[in-house]
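hi! just following up on the protien thing from before. the input was this:
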Amino acid sequence: MSWAINVSDLCFSYGNGNMVFDHLDFSINNHESVAIIGANGTGKSTLLRILVGLLNYHGEIEVAGLRLNRNNLAKIRKEIGFVFQDSNNQLFMPTLYDDMAFGLRNAQIPDEKAEELIDEALVKVDITYLKNRSNHKMSGGERKLAAIATILAMKPGIILFDEPSIALDPYNRRNLINILNSIENTKVIATHDLDLAYETCERGILLSPDGKMFDGDLSEIFNDEALLNKCHLEPPLFMQKAKRKGNS
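and the predicted 3d structure came back as:
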């Protein structure tokens, strides 16, 4: 099995009956980095929530070789980590250490091993200085990195990131990109930041307003102006700047 996630005939609609996903099919390979992109309202965050079992859907989904259903949910959530868009939804204990230890204890990891995993994750995202910091005394950028560290400590094979660069200043955004590129896990990054998508992923799944999707190389997607227009998107900023420079 080379894939980490396999989705077949996925359909989803909200209570108003509007179809968000209309028979989607795709697979994501192990250790692949895939960007989920699309205009606002096309279901980027919704798709991630479906993949971790937070929303009901029609179709078939397998994660790490397990059918996504109620019986397998506990096993699947050991294999897949979810970094929420709002870090405040993820950090709820008094300190970062408490948050990281909470998840590991629930997974019945022995204390000595948990300490190793916590320290390893903090080094990975270069925030060892935040280990015992109160969560409410962190900046927005620090909370984002702290949320990533809590997931890395759990050692999931697959990590989903929901709008990871939102509200970050340029310095913290660049730091985030470097960290994302250093993570070897399978990564699925839902983002409106097309430049970040291009720098962290080679493949993109473009969600369109009509519930369909376009799956392919990000360079090809971003160079297809007709497709981007159809999906209510513009090319990444770096491509727009290069085009203006070429026309000057």
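The radius of gyration is 19 Å.
Residues 103 and 154 are 7 Å apart (CA to CA).
cheers
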